[in-house]
Amino acid sequence: MKKHTISFINAFKGIWTAITTQFNIRIHFVIGSIVLFFGAYLQISIDHVIDLLLAISLVMTAEMVNTSLEFMSDAVTLEQNVNIKRAKDVAAGAVLLSAIFVIFIGLMVFLPKII
Question: What is the number of domains present in the chain?
Answer without folding.
Answer: 1
